[in-house]
Amino acid sequence: MAASDTERAQQQIDEIEALSSIYGDDWCVVDEDEKIYCIKISDCLDQPKWTLCLQVILPPGYPTAEPPIYQLNAPWLRGQDYTELANSLEEIYVQNLGESILYLWVEKIREVLVEKAQSSDPEPDIKKTTEEVDEDDGDDFLLDYQPIQEDQIKMLNYMTSESREDEEVPPIHHGNPITDRRSTFQAHLAPVVTTRQVSR
User: Fold this and answer.
1) pTM for this entry
2) Three-state SS at 170
3) What CATH number should be reported for the domain holding residue 49?
4) What b-and-e string marks burial along 74-89, b requiring 16 or more CB atoms within 10 Å of the CB?
5) Residues 63, 11: contact at Cβ < 8 Å?
């Protein structure tokens, strides 16, 4: 028998209370009504080198029918590191369908951070100010191209005046459509290295 909305809501409340007591100040309620939470995770308690913020939104169907919606935030987390960690979290969800999984996610992330700290990976650049980190967030998927340092008006003029015919359109990969409650979603992915490719 499927869990009722009341049962799911109680499971969410129980899980949030447990996580709050386990993680203390590292656990943060962003929006209680919208069920948005955030937890700061690090490789160790004393002098952390690697840290990451996991933000989750608990949909009404969680944990029995829907996974949490999540976002991983760290200035060093991109590319292959992001993909591997996201895949690990999704694998945990699949292996524990219908169960509360946030604790498992947090501990998996901590395990990855500890491994990074013990490996030969160089430490992340922790000298950045908060403002610099915020600016970096915008260019995560633009590889080495950093339009932040360009004057925005010049950039727009350049894009509109340049001929776009010589710019190769990147291959677009289409994911399998997923239907959920009469809504269909499909992911589309294309590797781009210039803003002109994005426009095309």
Assistant:
1) 0.57
2) coil
3) 3.10.110.10
4) bbbbeeeeeeebeeeb
5) yes
